[in-house]
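User: Hi! I'm working on a homework problem where we have to compare a predicted structure to a textbook description. Could you give me the structure for the chain below?
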Amino acid sequence: MSSDQWPTLDELQREENELELAGLTETDAYELGVRAVTAAAERGLPISVGVWRAGRQLFHCGLPGSTADNDAWLRRKGRVVMRFEHSSLYMARLCRDKNVTLTERYGLPAARYAAAGGALPLRVRGTGVVGWMGVSGLPQVDDHRFVVDILRDAAR
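Assistant: Happy to help. Predicted structure tokens:
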């Protein structure tokens, strides 16, 4: 799938269901973040990485080439995840399919919420969504896929 080819809502939902974690301690969040930073650094990706649990940021790193704007996008995408308990790409796809924005459909201010790929819910088995992990700095489908790859490895 090329970076401009969007997954369907069903594909995104299946993906989210597959990515359940056994838990999310501070150490788990740190390890997820380090795994993402290591993978990004090896590929020279200019991204910001964040891991949040229950409204608390447990990990953040801005890699070379990333900017404060990436950090702002990251937080806006994360707010979407916590509001809807779906990936930010799922919500972007939903809005795209309905030809509306988050503001038009849900009354959410664009300055605080971004329906753009790159943030995914962190679901813990038997608990549900407890936080989110995201990156910002690549095209949105690539941001999404990067996080999926990190979470898929962690969920094994």
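For your comparison, note the following. The chain is about 50% helix and 20% strand. The chain has a mean pLDDT of 95. Good luck with the assignment!
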